[in-house]
Write a structure and sequence with these properties.
The protein is of the alpha+beta class and about 375 residues long. It contains ten helices and ten strands.
C-alpha cells in the first residue's frame, strides 16, 4: 500500500518530470534522459516505499552518468539529482538526516564531475579516454614485436614496466629489409606511466625512421627529432644494431646506453660491444662510433636497458657481469625463452627492464 504522503510526493515529483526531461533532451537525447528518468523513478519509489527503497539509490544513475555523459551533462544531472533527493526527503515530513545526506551526495557528485572534467579537457566522452589509453598501450606492444626471421636465426624481446604498470619507458622498434635486421632498444628518461607517454610518441617516430634512413643515419635522425620536441630535462638512450642475416656481420651503435653483450659459442666467452655516443637530445650534432662484429653459428647478441643491470646498490659493470652469468645458464637451451627468464631474474623491480636476444642457430 502506498501511503497518502507518498502519493503526494509522487504527484509533486511528476510535475517536475516534463520540465526536467525537456532540459535533458537539449543536453543528450538518450543517455541524459534515461539517467534522469531512472533518478526520478528511484526517488518516487523511495517516497512510496521508504522502508524498501532508500533515497541513496539516486547515487546509481549519478555514477552511471560519470561513465557515459560529458562534463556539462553530468553537472546538470548532479544538480537535478540533488534537487530531487532533497525534495523527497523534505516532503516526507519525517526526521531524516537531510543535510548530511545531501552533503554526501554532493561530494560524490563533485568527485564524478572532477573525473568528467579531465575527460572533457581531452575531448573524449565517457570511458573513451580509458579505451584510447588501452589502444595506445596495445600499439606500443605491437610495435615491439620482432619481425619473422629466416631459418637459422631466432630473436626474442621481453619488457617489464616498473611498478607492474602496463606502460613502460623502455620500448623496442625493429624491421627486416633486404636480409638486414635492424633493432633499436630505447630507454626514455623516467619510468612506468610517467615515461610511457613519451615512449608512445618516440616509438612511432623511431619506428618510421628505422629501415628508411641508412643504418649510420638512424641515431643522428632520432637525435634531431628528439631535439625538436623541446622537452625540458628529458632525454633518451638507445642501442641500435644492424645484422646482415646472410653473413652474420653486425654493427652496434649506442647513445648513452649500456653496451651490447656478445656470446661467443666457439670460446664460450662473453664480451661487451662498447660503442661511444652521447644521450639523445643533448647535443646538436653528436657522433656515434660504430662497433663491428660477426655472429657465428651459435653466437648470440644481447641488447638490454639499464634496468637490467643497474640498481642503487649495484653499478652497471657489476650488473653486466651478473646478467652474463644469468644468461650463461640459458646456453644449453639455445637461449629459447631466455628473454622473459632474464627479465624476471635480473630485472630491477624499481625500474623498467627490457632485453632483446638475437641468436644465430648452430644448424642453419
Amino acid at each position: 500500500m502506498i501511503r497518502s504522503g507518498g502519493r503526494a510526493v509522487i504527484r509533486r515529483v511528476g510535475r517536475l518530470v516534463v520540465a526536467l526531461v525537456r532540459r535533458a533532451r537539449r543536453l543528450h537525447p538518450l543517455a541524459a534522459v534515461a539517467l534522469l528518468s531512472l533518478t526520478i523513478l528511484i526517488a518516487s519509489a523511495s517516497a512510496a516505499w521508504p522502508t524498501y527503497v532508500p533515497t541513496s539509490g539516486v547515487v546509481i544513475p549519478l555514477l552511471l552518468g560519470g561513465l557515459v555523459l560529458g562534463f556539462r551533462q553530468l553537472v546538470v544531472l548532479t544538480l537535478l539529482t540533488l534537487m530531487i533527493a532533497s525534495f523527497v526527503l523534505v516532503a516526507r515530513q519525517q526526521p531524516t538526516p537531510t543535510t548530511g545526506f545531501v552533503l554526501v551526495l554532493g561530494t560524490i557528485g563533485w568527485i564524478v564531475i572532477a573525473g568528467a572534467k579531465v575527460r572533457n579537457q581531452l575531448g573524449v566522452p565517457g570511458t573513451r579516454g580509458e579505451s584510447m589509453l588501452m589502444e595506445l598501450r596495445d600499439t606500443l606492444t605491437a610495435q615491439g614485436e620482432l619481425p619473422p626471421l629466416p631459418g637459422g636465426w631466432r630473436a626474442e624481446v621481453a619488457i617489464r614496466s616498473a611498478g607492474k604498470s602496463k606502460f613502460s619507458g623502455d620500448f623496442v622498434v625493429s624491421t627486416e629489409r633486404d636480409n638486414v635486421l635492424e633493432v633499436a632498444l630505447v630507454d626514455v628518461s623516467g619510468k612506468g606511466v610517467d615515461a610511457g607517454t613519451r615512449a608512445l610518441l618516440l616509438s612511432g617516430a623511431f619506428g618510421g625512421l628505422l629501415g628508411v634512413v641508412p643504418v649510420e643515419d638512424f641515431l643522428p635522425a632520432a637525435n634531431r627529432y628528439l631535439r625538436r620536441q623541446n622537452w625540458e630535462d628529458d632525454f633518451a638512450t638507445v642501442v641500435h644494431v644492424a645484422v646482415q642475416l646472410g653473413s652474420g656481420e653486425f654493427c652496434v651503435r649506442t647513445a648513452g646506453h649500456p653496451p651490447a653483450i656478445q656470446f661467443d659459442a666457439w670460446s664460450g666467452r662473453w664480451g661487451t660491444r662498447d660503442a661511444d655516443g652521447p644521450l639523445l637530445g643533448l647535443m646538436e650534432t653528436p657522433e656515434f662510433a660504430p662497433n663491428h662484429g660477426v655472429l657465428k653459428p651459435g653466437d648470440a647478441l644481447f641488447l638490454y636497458s639499464d634496468g637490467m643491470v643497474e640498481t642503487p646498490r649495484r653499478d652497471i659493470g657489476r650488473g653486466t657481469d651478473r646478467l652474463a652469468g644469468a644468461a650463461e645458464r640459458l646456453v644449453a637451451q639455445g637461449f629459447q625463452g631466455g628473454a622473459a627468464e632474464l627479465v624476471a631474474a635480473a630485472g630491477g623491480p624499481g625500474d623498467d627492464s627490457a632485453i632483446v636476444i638475437i641468436h644465430r642457430l648452430e644448424h642453419s
